[in-house]
Write a structure and sequence with these properties.
Largest sheet: 8 strands, parallel, barrel
Radius of gyration: 17 Å
Strand order of the largest sheet: 1-2-3-4-5-6-7-8
Number of helices: 10
Order of helices and strands: EHEHEHEHEHHEHEHEHH
Shape: globular
Structural class: alpha/beta
Helix content: 40-55%
Bound molecules: cytidine-5'-monophosphate
Number of strands: 8
């Protein structure tokens, strides 16, 4: 199987509460990228109707990072599946039973609706937490060890992949093998402002390291011409391949 086209690997983060802003971005970008990431900010303001608006034009990754008892997470995943999203995620620290329930819920709800199940991803360690923060919540040892542990646990529980930072791509590709999806935010082309992202990698480098999907927000959404920025990123990935 040939790898997906560069443009299909880009998911644009729609971090807005304004439906008009979101619709404008979707209109100019739907043909340029693989889809859109919808997070808690968008979803809390605009709800399932907002998601359906996006889905009318492009695939979506529903980034709500579910973390609850298995029964509750399974229900949330069934609802996300019926919405028709392509990717959805849960916190791996919710444990094996919760992740397994999520994977089963996606499969069963999709079969009942006659649709393709969404890929269910694990979230390992939030990159906003440093080792002192982890220590404070009782998690000792290097963050990278915990990231690898939770990625392996996600895989064993039947998830399709994980969300990870650029610095973890190589480690997790090695630990989890090919076929395990790595979805990577923290992407900055050389020409884009870093904003609040500290440890960043260029789109081409992230793909070369083994990322499957790149989550890219402001380098595209805050660019003077989002469509031109998206095209420039696609061209950079293609040139480096
Ligand atoms: O604008 P930017 O490209 O920084 O957006 C990246 C998106 O990925 C945002 O929605 C952000 O919340 C998300 N994200 C991240 N870093 C992580 C996990 C998620 O930037 N470690």
């Amino acid at each position: 199987m040939s790898p997906p086209a560069a443009k299909d690997r880009i998911l644009v983060a729609l971090d807005t509460v304004d439906l008009t802003v979101a619709q404008d971005l979707v209109r100019v970008l739907a043909g340029e990228v693989g889809g859109f990431k919808i997070g808690k900010e968008f979803f809390t303001a605009l709800g399932p109707e907002g998601v359906r608006t996006v889905l009318g034009s492009a695939p979506a990754f529903l980034d709500l990072k579910f973390h609850d008892i298995p029964n509750t997470v399974a229900g949330a995943i069934r609802a996300a599946t019926r919405l028709g999203v392509r990717l959805v995620n849960v916190h791996a620290s919710g444990g094996t039973a919760m992740m397994a329930a999520a994977a089963t819920a996606a499969r069963e709800a999709a079969a009942a609706a006659g649709i393709t199940p969404p890929k269910v991803l694990g979230v390992t360690v939030l990159t906003s937490l440093d080792e002192a923060d982890l220590e404070a919540v009782g998690q000792h040892g290097p963050a990278a060890v915990q990231v690898e542990r939770l990625a392996r646990l996600s895989q064993a529980a039947g998830l399709d992949g994980v969300v990870c930072s650029p610095r973890e791509i190589a480690l997790l590709r090695q630990a989890c093998g090919t076929g395990f999806l790595l979805v990577v935010p923290g992407i900055r082309p050389d020409w884009a402002a870093k904003g609040d992202q500290k440890r960043v990698t260029t789109p081409a480098k992230a793909c070369a390291l083994g990322a499957d999907y790149l989550v890219i927000g402001r380098p595209i959404t805050a660019a003077p011409e989002p469509q031109a920025a998206a095209r420039r990123i696609v061209a950079e990935i293609e040139e480096a391949a």
